[in-house]
Write a structure and sequence with these properties.
This protein is an alpha/beta fold. The protein has seven helices and 16 strands. It is elongated.
């Protein structure tokens, strides 16, 4: 985030320039800004020490920068991380995002995890150093003041994902749209819509998470199918579990497996079955009705 020419300078890149928010503070990025909070369980979080001549120079923050006019925050965050730290966009998987709205300007922190081991390096003169830092030691560094203010809420969500376990038969059967004429095709349509949701993300409040309205998530989806739909395969972002006989038992087992393997994750089971809801709640899952999920899918 370098000191920039005036926003009307012809040499300015798309999105470059300072703006003043409604609170009277000066921020970098005409369309807002975004940064990548990359977490590696074995190394910590990747921090960047900004060059002395940049805005808030010599402080530690995240690789990031101004959004371009056509970009979403996730796209800007990974582009900047690649430009500044040699972190390829294909090498990271987004998990969640937190947006701080300053009134007329916003900053989005995208929480992500590596898909494979990374070799980061300083790529331009906007940063002096990159360092993996254990989360417990982050506050010992001289942080950019906005990052310091956001860190407690970000730290609370580090390493936590949103997992949706979906009772496929219950969701498909909740709307009388002719699904009974071709149950495998109806299950495939649901799977494909869930795959789109896994790619595009959703607001945490849409599924009852209490992290705050400023949080959104890219969920991991476990779709449990039974009967004639058991032959439907997985899709990108959607794991499919074919229930051998008892679909409810498979949903409980999937819920228990997630909770055991990753106890800190946000776990939501989608079903309207009263008995099943009681069983998965006993496993520590939150609950969502099929109608609420379909409303999210309909909203795109």
């Amino acid at each position: 985030m370098p000191l920039s020419p005036a926003p009307d300078d012809a040499a300015c890149a798309d999105g470059d320039g300072f703006v003043v928010c409604l609170g009277g503070h000066r921020h970098w990025g005409r369309y807002g800004a975004a940064g990548l909070l990359l977490t590696d369980p074995g190394r910590g979080v990747l921090l960047q020490r900004r060059a002395w001549w940049t805005h808030h120079g010599s402080t530690w923050a995240l690789p990031g920068g101004a959004l371009r006019s056509t970009e979403k925050p996730w796209e800007a965050a990974v582009r900047e991380a690649e430009e500044e730290a040699a972190v390829p966009a294909t090498a990271v998987r987004p998990v969640a995002a937190s947006t701080a709205d300053h009134g007329g300007w916003s900053y989005t922190t995208v929480l992500a995890v590596p898909r494979w081991p990374l070799r980061e390096q300083v790529m331009n003169d906007e940063s002096d150093e990159l360092r993996w830092v254990p989360p417990s030691e982050v506050t010992a560094f001289p942080l950019h003041h906005d990052f310091a203010a956001a860190w407690p809420a970000l730290h609370e969500q580090l390493g936590r994902e949103l997992v949706l376990v979906v009772d496929g038969a219950n969701v498909v059967g909740s709307r009388p749209d002719g699904w009974w004429r071709d149950r495998p095709a109806a299950a495939e349509r649901l799977r494909d819509r869930l795959a789109l949701l896994a790619r595009s993300g959703l607001r945490g409040s849409d599924v009852g998470l209490d992290a705050g309205d400023n949080w959104s998530w890219w969920p991991r989806v476990v779709l449990v199918l039974e009967g004639q739909a058991r032959g439907v395969g997985p899709a990108d972002g959607v794991e499919v579990v074919a229930a051998p006989r008892d679909g409810d038992a498979s949903i409980v087992a999937a819920t228990r497996e997630v909770r055991t393997a990753r106890p800190d994750d946000h776990l939501v089971v989608v079903t309207a079955d009263r008995e099943l809801r009681g069983r998965v709640a006993g496993e520590g899952a939150s609950l969502l009705g099929p109608g609420a999920l379909l409303d999210v899918l309909d909203a795109g």
